[in-house]
Amino acid sequence: MIRTLLIFSNISQRLTFLLFICILICLVQIALIFQLFSHHDKVHPSSRFMKLNCKQKLLCPNNITRFSIHIDKNIQYPNISYIRSPVFSIILDTIRNSSYYTNDSTSACIHIAPVDTIDRDRRSKNGDYLYFIEQRLKFFPEWSDPNKIHLIFNHYTGTWPSYHRTLDFNLPSHYILASTSLTYSNYNCLSHLTFPLFHSNYSFSSSSSSSLPSRSMLLSFKGKSYEDVQHHRTFFRHLHNNHDIIIKYTDHTNTSDDKNEYIQLLQQSHFCLVPSGRRLYSYRLLETLHYGCIPVITTNDDELIILPFSEIIDWSKSVIIYSNSSLSLLPYYLKMISKTQRNDMQKQCLTIWLEYFSSIQRIVLTALHILNDRFISSFSSLSIQY
Ligand SMILES: *[C@@H]1O[C@H](CO)[C@@H](O)[C@H](O)[C@H]1NC(C)=O
Ligand SMILES: *[C@@H]1O[C@H](CO)[C@@H](O)[C@H](O)[C@H]1NC(C)=O
Ligand SMILES: *[C@@H]1O[C@H](CO)[C@@H](O)[C@H](O)[C@H]1NC(C)=O
Ligand SMILES: *[C@@H]1O[C@H](CO)[C@@H](O)[C@H](O)[C@H]1NC(C)=O
Ligand SMILES: *[C@@H]1O[C@H](CO)[C@@H](O)[C@H](O)[C@H]1NC(C)=O
Ligand SMILES: *[C@@H]1O[C@H](CO)[C@@H](O)[C@H](O)[C@H]1NC(C)=O
Ligand SMILES: *[C@@H]1O[C@H](CO)[C@@H](O)[C@H](O)[C@H]1NC(C)=O
């Protein structure tokens, strides 16, 4: 460049040349920015953060004025051994301990059958898929009562890649399904409740917000690669730069090493990739929030997932939803986010985690509070349903 500059003998020629170079660089920059913005709608459409706003309200059956829950009396279905997953047990215990619980079936606004509906994926490896579920459910007289509303919890329906939602049992006449992986196309604001995915051993000993370590990485990911099913997370490897973007796939040689590295990356990065996995939701979302890393949720364009508890949480200031189709632009997109904005998002993540997700009990109570708001508390002529 210096040599080229020397070709031009007089100063004004040199200046013109410099100006030309500057304009060229500017144009390239503008083109890049333009490309980002043209993708922006696809990448970050505001519709993906629609806070669910249900105008209709529900009414408890039988003139019941208080939102209350009854767990149907646990009569054992004969001659089939009864299994209950740890997650379902904790959910029932939390409800039993809550102020919404009533042990009187006749005064209850909604019911829960003590039949484990958490895992409805036949391919599930943890053995929590419950067989003969239809028979077990029908065994409870309340289940078949058309005047009763049943609350049903579900973590897994169907499986990757099509995420077919099949519970493998018939829903009762009136129900509310608290389920993970709901999308805008299948959500019904009266009969669905967005529910997060978590392990039965989901618990954190220390509170996270106090000790924020300094973060040196822009983006990271550590997890399975799913190469067998051509998942878009296998593309993440192309983002790895061994500097401020670290992508590592689990190698299974030492699970405790894998786990430690996973947590370290969550603590050291500003942004963490949260791809859908075998499900649309992943355990990663809550873990990422807990460690104060901003989740970058990568999804397929045709699956507009609703984040958990969008009924009450405004997620737009804390997470990024990013289309799987423009992953190569992701680093530029993230670098455009200012430090201040990043810090605000991070704080918001921790606040959301503490308020709604910091324990299974808190998660279940949040779900109950949302339901409480959904029912008209006193008998009113404005009523719509049931
Ligand atoms: C509900 O209240 C209405 C009006 O007070 C009454 O006519 C009706 O019998 C009540 N229904 C039940 C199931 O108690
Ligand atoms: C299961 O128990 C019920 C009632 O005790 C009985 O009528 C039925 O024959 C039993 N079924 C089997 C397969 O043993
Ligand atoms: C429910 O309450 C009992 C007694 O207070 C307590 O021992 C138990 O840990 C609670 N369980 C849950 C899930 O909140
Ligand atoms: C509900 O619990 C109370 C106190 O534990 C008990 O006295 C009452 O009989 C119970 N009611 C029913 C319908 O089981
Ligand atoms: C928590 O449970 C899951 C399966 O439910 C298991 O894969 C994981 O290793 C467990 N984590 C810990 C820390 O025990
Ligand atoms: C993104 O998701 C779509 C389905 O919406 C799929 O067809 C496509 O292959 C995915 N792209 C990548 C890069 O994985
Ligand atoms: C896995 O790594 C941890 C920590 O580095 C070590 O303590 C443990 O012994 C290793 N386990 C095996 C089976 O290699």
From TrEMBL:
GO MF annotation terms: glycosyltransferase activity
What are the transmembrane regions?
15-37
Is Lipid metabolism a UniProt keyword of this protein?
no
Give the GO biological process terms: heparan sulfate proteoglycan biosynthetic process
Q: Which InterPro entries match?
A: Exostosin, Exostosin_GT47
Tell me the domain of life. Answer: Eukaryota
Domain Exostosin GT47 spans what residues?
87-328
Keywords assigned:
Membrane, Transmembrane, Transmembrane helix
What family is reported? Answer: Belongs to the glycosyltransferase 47 family.
What is the protein named?
Exostosin GT47 domain-containing protein
